[in-house]
Specification:
mainly alpha; 318 residues; 50% helix
Amino acid sequence: MAYSLKPHTGKARELPSSYYLATLGAGSQRATQSALNTLASLASKGMATPMSCPWWLWTPTLSAQVRAQLLKRYKPTTINRHLTALRGVLKASWHLGLMTEKAYRQATAFSNEDVLLLPIGNQPLQNATLTKLFKTCTNGTARASRDAAILALLYGCGLRRQELTALNLKHFDEKQGSIEVLHGRGAQARLVYPPQGAQAALKDWMKHRGMSPGALFKRIRRGDHIQKHRMTDQSVLLVVKNRGQQAGLEALTAHELRQSFISNLLDQGAALGAVQHLAGHRNPQSTLRYDRSAERAKEDAARKLMVPYKKPRTPPGA
C-alpha cells in the first residue's frame, strides 16, 4: 500500500484497542483480537500491533486500502468481522477523545460485504437422541449431575460455552426460574429461562455443589471431589464430547446443542424475536439461518411443478 501507519511510540495513553476489547465478551475478544492484529499489520506494513497502532490517525483512504487487501484474502463473512472490529476500535478512539467525531465518521463510511446466508446444514437433535445423551448422566455422582446440568443448559437455554463457564451461582434465580447471562458476544446481558427438565438438572447438581458463592460449574477431580476452580471452555468441550461418545453420538459439539435449541424452538412456532433474544443474537438474520421451515416450504412448492422430460429411446444397435 502507498500509505501506512507507523507504530505509536509516544507518551503512554489509554489505548483504543484495550478499551474496545474490554467491552466485549470472552468469546468475542479472541476473534476481535485476531482481527485487530490483521488490521494493524495491514495498515503498517507489518510494523504495528493492536497496542502500538495509532488508530486515531486512521483515514478514509487507509480504510479503502485495507479493505482492498481484505478482499484479496478472505471470504465476505471474515471480511465483515474485520470491518466490525475496525469500526469498534475507531469508535473507541473517538470516545477516548483521540480523534474527532467527523474523522471517525469519515474513516468508517464503508459498508459490509454482501453475504448469502444459507440455512445451517445439520439436522437438529430430536428427543430420542437427547434422551440417549442424558441417560449417560444418571448414576447419581457429582460428575454425572454436573454434566447433566451442563448439557441441559447448552441445549435447554442455547448457551455458548463461554457464557456457561462465566456463570456464577448468583446468576441463577431459582424462584423466578431464570438465568442471567452476562458474557455473550458484545457483552449484552439477557435473561434465559431453563425448561423444567433443565431446572431439575440444576437442582440435582446444587445438591452436590452446595450454595457457596462463586462459579456455577466447577472442576471435579477423581473420586468425585468438587474443586473450587471454575471450569474452562475446553473442559466443557470435553464433557460434551465424552458424553456424546457414550451415547453413540460421534463428534457432538456444544454448538450443535445450541443449534438444536434454536431450530427446535422455531420448528415449534416460537416467535422469531423471542428466539433471537434467548439465543443472544444481535441480528435476526443470524437466527433465521436456523429456521428450516422456509426451506422445507420452498422444496415442497418446487416439487409441485411437473417437468415433461422423458428419457430418450436407445437407438437400435446402440
